């Protein structure tokens, strides 16, 4: 089996200038969104983990501003190749991966360098990729891994105080990560990424220790293979024929190889397993530098912030999305500055003041054509006297041309912070907010989402990273890749099941978007929210009304059979969740494809709850109900007084 580690090492730095980590030589290098721009007499160096050593192929991704450029490639102080490319083959900023360059890595750490020795201008350096060439198809020897207890989803971690291995919430840091090196048929050593020590069987427990000897060898038994729906399950059997057993927040023990010894072994890391693009994500940044709401608030954004945030949205966001998804999600960002001031905002009192799509209809019609973008993100200031929150992602509706609407309050941000490729914040807000819209979009299409959805990190045992600049990138990574493990032993999140669906921008052009219906009782009255508002509060009851010609009476029938109120995006629920006798119909933000929320139309025209079989009645049962009569579920269907027609608008 191969012993060299497969990995990708991005070229990035904390700031431009001499002395930047990774840059070598006597001149400056400059941090860019795609990597590092090397200036005259400057090279770049990586420290590469070689595991137990072995043959490998090196690939370097570079970009060229102009003409033909060349630099020499070195391993552990010896030149191995000259890398040559030109602006046509490897244009800035896209670049191209060049290689393979065959090498033999020594055990432990190795140094790989690009040196300015060829008398030409220098490259922009994107990354170095290392691939073992012996038994390279062994998945377990590729990239970083995370060990999790099947019982409670605790992640095997090194406690910073005691040095012991314990179960803990997942922060995505290296004290919780492992690399596997094969030592025989189905046997592996687990190298701890933070310390370089190995997982060993020791006196009835599992611990960190030396990597020599049979105590550091484990047979990885696969109990269940990984699918897009479920994670793989494994047991780790020691050479003494006992298994590692999770013990909650305490040190794992050794014992009988039964169901208590089950582990998840999950691929993790950033840029460790480069893959082909599976999803193109298109967004527009609508920058509104000026706010002037008469008698309420006014303010403006600085030119430096306006300029920086556009670079962040178009370039830095592409860098972060590529990094956290191993290249599976490609970000395509555009930006436009609209200097017409915002003249109205949603909110009152001490609440956040935010620009909804209804406030910016001229901008929507000018810059957000239906079907061009998946998301539009409004970068604004709420003015000097009002709060505006940080980010807001309400989803899409007809007012946003069915483009997922989000807002970001740039009032107190610093221009330079938007341009970092080391600290994911504040750019992380551009990842986070559209995910709220995607939650609602994919939920309706039946894609299973994590418990608590996007704000459910703690419910799924994820916590903020302790590595500066990484924040919740590990949560977003697993969410985007569809590999958040739920308490029911399934995968949740986007990933292949979401990527196989229609995109939000294509859905905006589909016939389904324009299929609005009214739900009309045999009396001629229709479903409307109590009070007749187009955007009622959550859990507003539904009533019958003669006013059937406004958006307030418009609904869409989702593929799941759920009825969604068009202008508000709320869906019809039985009050308190189950359609018992006498339970009213209300509007609620959750629109998931659950049978308790689904309706069937019976042969007699009744609306029947798919779970209980009870049908919708006007409260009191009249065939000619009064204006404002509540709607309830009850036994009894297929009478003329219980007929409802779904009438296309």
From TrEMBL:
Which stretches are transmembrane?
A: none
Q: Would you say which domain of life the source belongs to?
A: Bacteria
Coiled-coil regions listed:
none
Under the heading CDD domains, the entry gives: beta-trefoil_Ricin-like, beta-trefoil_Ricin_MytiLec-like
Q: What is this protein called?
A: Ricin B lectin domain-containing protein
The scientific name of the source species is Sorangium cellulosum
Instruction: Give the residue ranges for region: Disordered.
Output: 1-23
Cross-referenced InterPro entries? Ricin_B-like_lectins
Extract the SUPFAM superfamilies matched here.
Answer: Ricin B-like lectins (SSF50370)
């Amino acid at each position: 089996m191969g012993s060299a580690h497969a990995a990708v090492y991005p070229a990035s730095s904390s700031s431009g200038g001499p002395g930047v980590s990774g840059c070598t030589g006597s001149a400056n290098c400059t941090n860019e969104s795609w990597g590092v721009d090397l200036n005259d007499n400057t090279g770049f160096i990586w420290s590469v983990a070689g595991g137990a050593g072995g043959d490998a192929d090196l690939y370097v991704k570079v970009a060229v501003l102009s003409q033909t450029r060349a630099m020499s490639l070195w391993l552990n102080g010896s030149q191995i190749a000259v890398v040559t490319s030109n602006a046509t083959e490897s244009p800035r900023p896209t670049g191209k991966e060049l290689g393979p360059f065959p090498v033999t890595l020594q055990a432990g750490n190795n140094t790989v360098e690009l040196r300015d020795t060829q008398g030409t201008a220098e490259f922009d350096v994107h990354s170095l990729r290392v691939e073992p060439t012996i038994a390279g198809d062994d998945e377990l020897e590729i990239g970083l891994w995370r060990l999790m207890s099947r019982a409670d989803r605790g992640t095997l971690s090194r406690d910073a105080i005691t040095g012991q291995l314990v179960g803990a919430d997942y922060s995505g840091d290296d004290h919780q990560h492992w690399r596997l090196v094969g030592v025989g048929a189905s046997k592996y050593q687990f190298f701890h990424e933070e310390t370089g020590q190995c997982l060993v069987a020791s006196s009835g427990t599992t611990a960190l220790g030396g990597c020599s000897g049979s105590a550091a060898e484990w047979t990885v038994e696969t109990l269940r293979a990984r699918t897009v729906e479920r994670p793989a399950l494994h047991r780790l059997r020691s050479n003494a024929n006992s298994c590692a057993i999770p013990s909650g927040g305490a040190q794992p023990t050794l014992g009988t190889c039964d169901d208590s010894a089950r582990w998840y072994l999950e691929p993790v890391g950033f840029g460790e397993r480069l893959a082909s693009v599976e999803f193109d994500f298109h967004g527009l940044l609508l920058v509104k530098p000026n706010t002037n709401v008469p008698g309420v608030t006014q303010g403006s954004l600085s030119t430096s912030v306006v300029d920086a945030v556009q670079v962040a949205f178009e370039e830095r966001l592409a860098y972060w999305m590529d990094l956290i998804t191993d290249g599976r999600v490609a970000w395509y960002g555009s930006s436009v500055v609209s200097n017409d001031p915002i003249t109205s905002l949603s909110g009152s009192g001490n609440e956040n003041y935010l620009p909804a799509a209804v406030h910016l209809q001229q901008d929507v019609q000018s810059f957000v054509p239906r079907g061009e973008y998946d998301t539009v993100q409004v970068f604004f200031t709420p003015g000097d006297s009002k709060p505006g929150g940080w980010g807001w992602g309400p989803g899409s509706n007809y007012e946003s041309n069915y483009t997922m609407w989000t807002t970001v309050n740039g009032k107190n941000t610093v221009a330079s912070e938007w341009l970092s490729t080391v600290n994911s914040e504040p750019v992380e807000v551009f990842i986070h907010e559209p995910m709220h819209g995607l939650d609602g979009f994919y939920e309706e299409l039946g894609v299973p989402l994590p418990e608590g959805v996007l704000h459910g990190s703690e419910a799924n045992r994820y916590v903020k990273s302790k590595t500066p600049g990484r924040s919740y990138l590990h949560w977003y990574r697993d969410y985007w890749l569809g590999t958040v493990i739920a308490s029911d032993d399934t995968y949740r999140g986007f990933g292949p099941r979401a990527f196989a669906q229609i995109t939000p921008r294509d859905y905006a052009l589909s016939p389904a978007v324009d299929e609005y219906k009214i739900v009309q009782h045999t009396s001629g009255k229709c479903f409307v929210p109590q009070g007749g508002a187009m955007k009622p509060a959550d859990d507003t009851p539904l009533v019958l009304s003669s006013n059937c010609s406004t958006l307030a009476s418009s609904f869409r029938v989702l593929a799941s059979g759920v009825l969604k109120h068009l202008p508000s995006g709320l869906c019809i629920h039985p009050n308190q969740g189950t359609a018992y006798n006498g339970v009213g119909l209300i509007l609620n933000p959750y629109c998931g494809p659950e049978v308790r929320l689904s309706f069937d139309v019976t042969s007699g025209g009744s609306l029947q709850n798919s779970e209980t079989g009870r049908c919708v009645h006007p409260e009191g049962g009249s065939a000619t109900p009064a204006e404002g009569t509540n709607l309830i579920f009850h036994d009894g269907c297929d009478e003329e007084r219980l007929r409802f027609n779904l009438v296309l608008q």
